[in-house]
Amino acid sequence: MDDAELVVAELASNAVIHGCNGADGQFDVFLAARPDGLEVAVGDPSSQLPTRVETAEDDVHGRGLILVHALSAQWKALVGPGGGKRIWALIAAESLPGVQPSTQVGPGIEVISC
């Protein structure tokens, strides 16, 4: 689960640092088991899409999207019609050793204040 934990942590920390400047100061995390892996999505009130930046070797920030790209089978950023954005990623089942794929997918949204 290390890959999934790291992707969720990176997306959630980006939401806190860059996206939770809206009036309610909240973001949401969605996780769903799929036959092909784990679907992860983090949404926040900001409509500003993330960008990958060049980092120096000793920089302590700026590698989050590089990690998300490297650890995800797919990922994308979506802006909602009413504003806000959602960053979506799929962690391939092969990257989740010992986890049995599920065909039962249900709601999994949790709202977290930041």
UniProtKB/TrEMBL annotation:
CDD domains: HATPase_RsbW-like. One of its GO terms (molecular function) is protein serine/threonine kinase activity. SUPFAM superfamilies: ATPase domain of HSP90 chaperone/DNA topoisomerase II/histidine kinase. Keywords: Kinase, Serine/threonine-protein kinase, Transferase. Residues 2-75 form the Histidine kinase/HSP90-like ATPase domain. It holds the Pfam family HATPase_c_2. InterPro entries: Anti-sigma-factor_SerPK, HATPase_C_sf, HATPase_dom. This is Histidine kinase/HSP90-like ATPase domain-containing protein.
